[in-house]
Design a protein that fits this description.
The longest helix has 24 residues, at 331-354. The chain is of the alpha+beta class. It is built from 12 helices and 17 strands. The structure holds ligand EPS.
């Protein structure tokens, strides 16, 4: 239904994305996208590059008179840093960094210099993913669906998040530079990051992304690639440095008994309710109306100021890695990136569920969706011969 491609290199002239399949009639302008781009640029643990870039989007197609037309939406973000790379010879890069795309990219594409691998593998590309995600978030908002997120842990410093409402968490996270809703933990995270920057190292962490007000019925168990958590997992795992994803309390649930894991159903004024959400809002590959709770583990960035052991492919000798300017901890900045990827999948699943080419067609269909209410779940209560 909805699809997008990105193009561009980290230090090339610009980054572009084409989002195809967005319905017509969505009011859209650059400011809506720039708001999310600014969030992606804010976060403690960035390197010098973020002082150079001032990401702002140009909308080159798919929007006329301030509204989407149903045509592909084309977005472009200039790389300010490009001016310093243009028309100059760049020193060869021949010592692959462990954990980076340098070696695998060079073997795969027969590069004679490692730079093309890192240029495209770089998380700079996520700039235009966030532009696409901003459109998807804005689209979902027309249906009352919110996608937000925050940092749960950085290194071994963990947030204490027991009681707070998700919307409160989203807002609290934006109040500090590590995007953690627990202000005390945020201070510890920041202090820990200052330590690792001094120690010339990097740190990863765990992010939580949550989608609220998602209707029952997105995704399907009818085929493996229609399952909603499978689609979301692929999207989250596609983000640079993300190496693990879980839904709800998946890894914790694996240690518990079935009777302690599943979210009991109760009836409240003819509506089926749950008091827990250990499943993370998806059952049978289909959204169940509860918040969709996703967690993603980000590895520590592979470029470290402290050299790591590698082999210089030019000299054929074992050697230390050479330092490339980089971030120390991109975990806080990954929040809007992962939100964007989740919003893209949910927008796609919503369009699939509702059909329709314009927002005007879709809104009444959304209002008419069946819910987990007794009146929407008529059972005929008779025996059937299912196979003759
Ligand atoms: C990145 C390396 C750094 C980051 C960059 C991603 O860039 P540079 O090598 O130019 O210093 O700053 O991230 C961004 C530019 C960005 O916008 O997030 C990498 O190798 O992945």
């Amino acid at each position: 239904m909805l699809r997008f491609l990105t193009a561009g290199e980290s230090h090339g002239p610009s980054l572009t994305a084409i989002l195809d399949g967005m319905p017509a009639g969505l009011k859209l302008n650059a400011a809506i996208i720039d708001f999310e781009l600014a969030r992606r640029q804010k976060g403690f643990g960035s390197g010098a590059r973020m002082k150079i870039e001032r990401d702002s989007v140009q909308i080159l197609g798919g929007v006329m008179a301030g509204e989407t037309t149903g045509a592909p939406i084309t977005v472009l973000v200039q790389n300010m840093d490009h001016a310093r790379w243009k028309a100059r010879a760049v020193e060869p890069m021949t010592a692959p960094r462990p954990g980076h795309a340098d070696l695998t990219g060079a073997v795969k594409y027969a590069y004679q210099d490692l730079r093309p691998a890192l240029e495209r593998a770089s998380a700079r590309e996520t700039t235009v993913r966030v532009a696409v995600g901003a459109v998807c978030k804005h689209f979902l908002a027309q249906f009352g669906i919110t996608v937000g997120g925050y940092v749960r842990s950085i290194g071994e410093v963990e947030a204490e998040l027991s009681a707070a409402d998700y919307r409160v968490r989203f807002e609290a996270a934006e109040q500090n530079e590590v995007r953690c809703p627990d202000q005390a933990a945020a201070e510890k995270m920041r202090a820990r990051l200052e330590e690792i920057i001094r120690a010339k190292d990097t740190l990863g962490g765990i992010l939580e992304i949550v989608a609220l007000n998602v209707p029952v019925g997105l995704g399907s168990f009818s085929q493996w690639d229609k399952r909603l958590e499978a689609r979301l997992a692929m999207a989250l795992m596609s983000v640079q440095a993300i190496k693990g994803v879980e839904f709800g309390d998946a890894f914790e649930n694996a240690r518990r008994l079935g009777t302690q894991v599943h979210d009991s159903m109760t009836l409240e004024r003819s509506s089926l309710q749950r008091s827990t959400n250990r499943a993370g809002g998806i059952e049978g590959g289909i959204s169940n109306g509860q918040p969709i709770v996703m967690r993603a583990a980000m590895k520590p960035i592979a470029t470290t100021l402290t050299p790591q052991h590698t082999v210089d492919l030019a000299s054929g000798q074992e050697s230390p890695t050479k330092y490339e300017r980089s971030d120390f901890c991109p975990v806080p900045r990954a929040v809007p990136i992962l939100e964007s990827m989740a919003a893209f999948v949910l927008a796609d699943a919503l369009i699939e569920k509702l059909g329709g080419d314009s927002l005007g067609e879709m809104l009444p269909r959304f209002a008419a969706l069946r819910k987990a209410r007794l009146e929407d779940l008529k059972m005929d209560n008779t025996s059937h011969v299912f196979w003759e």
